[in-house]
Amino acid sequence: ELPGGFQALEIRGKPVMEAWESPYMAALADAVCGSGSRLSSLGGRVLEVGFGLGISAKCIDAYDSVEEHVIIEANDEVLGQAALWADDCARRPTTVIGGFWQEIVDDLPDASFGGILFDVFPLTDEEAAGDGEVGPFFASAARLLRPGGLFVFYYDAGRNWIECVRAFRQETAPKLLAAGFTSVEDDQVECRPREGCPYFWKDRFLVPLARR
After folding, report:
1. Nearest in space to 77 (alpha carbons), one of 57, 51, 95, 102
2. With contact defined as beta carbons under 8 Å apart, do 134 and 118 qualify?
3. pLDDT 10s digits, 81-113
4. Looking at the chain, which runs of residues are DSSP E strands?
């Protein structure tokens, strides 16, 4: 069951997230918090930018490696759901901060997190493709992570899987390295979008893995 009981999220009349994305959110959370993440040795603090349906938050909360979970959420309605979930359901110490990440991250200390997961709603068509919405966050992510920390984020580009991988490796990975990450890899997770889903039609998601 998803936090709040919702199966889909719309913002400004546009579809943002649906429950079928759960395997992708779980894969992103596992990359940040799982056995290969080094999170425990990096202090156990996780920053999540964008709460959405709370799928990834619930996954993050399940890991014993997590000592503290910080969530940034800009949408007022979603923020309310995140706060309720943090108060009533979260097992780990969880702090929910309301506002756009651009207004908040400068107040967070350098090297204060062991892992970061980023998945926000794009405000423009330009932000909706490739690294358009997350690209401006790359430098902040590098600053906020401890050496060895991992940064993951929602990524989709191109008309098919080959174009998606090519865009990430040729366009996005160099930007991450230029922002201060020491290595960039990618993985994949299979998915089954619902029939007629207007924003995703591939049979898998790309999992970006940027190591500080």
Report:
1. 51
2. yes
3. 999 999 999 999 999 999 999 999 999 999 999
4. 8-11, 14-18, 45-49, 68-73, 94-98, 113-118, 145-153, 183-190, 204-211
User: Is the per-residue pLDDT at 176 higher than 60?
Assistant: yes
Cα–Cα distance, 212 to 193 (Å, whole number): 32
108 DSSP β-pair partners: none
Tell me phi and psi for residue 174, to 5 degrees.
-60, -35
Q: Using the structure block, give the residue that is written with the tokens 């990834």.
A: 56
Task: Give the N- to C-terminal CA distance of the chain in Å, as an integer.
Answer: 34
Rounded distance between C-alpha atoms, residue 144 and residue 137, angstroms: 10
Q: Which of 50-54, 72-76, 119-123 has the lowest mean pLDDT?
A: 119-123
Q: What are the structure tokens assigned to 48, written together?
A: 């999540």
For residue 42, give both structure tokens. Answer: 């990096």
181-204 tens-digit pLDDT: 999 999 999 998 888 777 778 999
Which tokens sit at 7? 């199966």
Q: What's the chain's average pLDDT?
A: 90
User: Which phi-psi region, left, alpha or beta, contains residue 81 (left: φ > 0; alpha: ψ -120 to 50)?
Assistant: alpha
pLDDT at 152 over 50: yes
Sequence-distant contacts of 129-137: CB under 8 A, at least 24 apart: 129/156, 129/157, 130/155, 130/156, 130/157, 130/167, 130/168, 130/171, 130/172, 131/155, 131/157, 131/171, 131/172, 131/175, 135/172, 135/175, 136/102, 137/49, 137/101, 137/105
8: three-class secondary structure by DSSP: strand
